Amino acid sequence: MKRRSFMHLTAIGSASLLLPMYACRSGHKQEELKGTTDFEALSLNLLTTWCDAMIRDQINDPNNSVTHGALYCHACEDIHGRCTDAVYPLMYMADKTGEQKYLDAAIKLMDWSVNVDLPDGSWTNMLDPKSWNGTTVFGSIALGEALHHHGHLLSKEMKQKWEARLKRAIEYVYLKFDDNFSHINYRFTAIYALSFLGDYFNEEKYIKRSDELALLIPKYLTEPNKLLYGEDHPDDEKSEKGLLPIDIGYNVEESLNGVVQYAVHKKDEKLIQLLTESLNGHLEFMLPDGAWDNSFGTRQNKWTYWGSRTTDGCQPAFTLLADRNPAFGTAAILSTELLQRCTVNGLLAGGLHYESYGEKPCMHHTFAHAKNVAFVLDNSKKLKNVNKKTPIPRKVNDGVKHFPELDVWLGARGPWRNTVSSYDQIWKKKYSVAATGGSLAVLWHEKVGPLFTASMVEYMEVEPYNQQPQPGEDFCLTPRVERMVDNVWYTNIQDLKAKVSVTDFNGEINFSVNTILTDRDKATLKSDGAFALNYLFDKEKTTIKALRTSSEANGDTLVLPVISPTGEKVVKVSDTKIEIHKKEGIVVLESNVPLAIKKSLKERIFNQVPGMEVLPIMVAFPEGIKEVVCSIQVI
User: Fold this and answer.
1) Which stretches make up the Broad-specificity ulvan lyase C-terminal domain (predicted)?
2) pLDDT in tens, 178-227
3) In a 3-state reduction of DSSP, which class is residue 155?
4) What is the number of other CB atoms lying within 10 angstroms of the CB of residue 178?
5) What three-state secondary structure class fits 218?
């Protein structure tokens, strides 16, 4: 089935299959559904919401074996082949609640899965038999966890049938996954899958392969911050600056889960200590509201503010090691709270503003993240220190930290948090799609949350089955200086050679950026495109300066796409002052030259990366003016 080919489907529902719920408890009292901790209660509430929505959108058409039982994605108007991953959370809910509808849904889903079967034991990512099948490793874990924890709900015959199918899937992983297979997230997830299912099936060869792959883990951790690299292919190709491909979203929501689950499963203390260091390094990138800052990552095309579109969530790794650093527990809770805030009509949306803009959430986000919430609930008795008593680093930090393996700086002063990126890795080696060029990739304030978040320079469906189409115009959300010359767009955020320096003096952090306006093919305006940018932060305000350092030219604009959902009041106080009225406070922008708001078809401009709406404020350089200065305050 091709994408957007299911408009004819009307039989979407969740009629009961009237199958017996073997060994399932009944007569549950309401209080039994409450978690024993606040985190468990939060997780159970969210999982219930998601599973009920998935059942609502499960296709109920017994006369069509190609679709009956699958989960329909209204956003993509298609079926995602990986929707069978939902078997685990549905089985968890069946066991927890005793409600037949969850078991019925799980059985229908597994019956449907024959439509994505391949002869080699793998499952395809879509109904297209030629689509990617490496995702079999994720489906194997989901089905394995479902059988391990909740297989007693099935009849003997059905359990044996599911186990036989699982054995074919993990055998495929065993035969195909080596130390060069695809991106690092597949190999690192396979480490846990082979170990866990090796024990389940008492298959020594799986365990041995898992242990062999695990020996590679230290190789893929950078110095000095133990960040995981490998999210590109080849996985170790360095940029011109000598930087390796790193993606925070994939690391925290997928790869690190696999190796932490393996280390805990094996009780490998040495590896646990190493991975604790790695989680510490990655935790630096969580914003105080639970968002994962992936503004610069190699796979930023799938950044969703809370993580990454087709990954599974950070909860397993950070809860399993919360006894090593209690801030990990805080991170898991903050992330889950953010997932809850981004849930729209029962499904996890790919950012904060899907509902306000009227964009539908993709089903993929929900069935993927539901697995990890189920895992946390199934393992809740093993978890320690999962609370919010210990703040995460970015909540309490002050000053600037540079990450040399990324050429990225994280700043903090008073209520402000910021990210400045000069990372020069390019996904797919084609165009610079993530934050670079000395860009102010993130600006965040403790009162109102995100004010700037970088998007792709140009929105590209690098993975058509795994990205939603961009609604409306393609407008980059990264703050920048730009100029159009003969219909060619030049901007600092395509300059891979921008130079960044920083000082912290007398209460003010000052990032200085030397850059040249550059087009998508990396051609520059050498004679008159040089700029000096400054981002200054003190406790009261953020100030952005853009100074022409080469011969004067016309047509330059400082673009400030301020995060603002539809409905927020905008007041133009004067030609040089604009107020944006948010529930939590008023954002005030004031400049030395006139401010304008870019006209658009709708009240706001929306970008899928990272799922935000913006008010696009344009600060044009008047003739004869070499420097534009704009301050931002929150009152």
Assistant:
1) 400-634
2) 999 999 999 999 999 999 999 999 999 999 999 999 999 999 999 999 99
3) coil
4) 11
5) helix
pLDDT of 431 strictly over 90:
no
**Average pLDDT for 620-633:** 95
Q: Where are the alpha helices (DSSP H) in 379-411?
A: 393-396
**Nearest Cα to Cα of residue 72 among 102, 96, 101, 108:** 108
**Residue at 346: amino acid letter:** G
Residue 483 · residue 529 · CB < 8 Å: yes
CB-CB contact of 525 with 516 (8 Å): yes
Q: What Rg, from alpha-carbon coordinates, does the chain have?
A: 25
Token duo for residue 143:
């089905």
Spatial contact of 90 and 96, defined as CB atoms under 8 Å apart: no
Residues in the chain: 635
Q: In the structure encoding, which two tokens stand for residue 490, read together?
A: 């030049």
Single-letter code of the amino acid located at 156: K
Give me the residues paired with residue 502 across strands.
511
178 Cβ contact partners less than 8 Å away, ≥ 6 residues apart: none
State the chain's maximal CA–CA distance in angstroms.
Answer: 82
Of 477, 438, 487, 501, nearest to 604 by C-alpha is: 477
CA distance 232 to 63: 42
Checking if the pLDDT of 14 tops 60, the result is no
CA distance 492 to 421: 12
Separation of CA 111 from chain center:
30
Partner residues linked to 490 by β-bridges: 483
| Residues 58 and 70: beta-carbon distance below 8 Å | yes
280: nearest Cα among 403, 102, 177: 403
Strand 577-581 and strand 586-591: pairing? antiparallel
pLDDT in tens, 540-590: 999 999 999 986 667 899 999 999 999 999 999 999 999 999 999 999 999
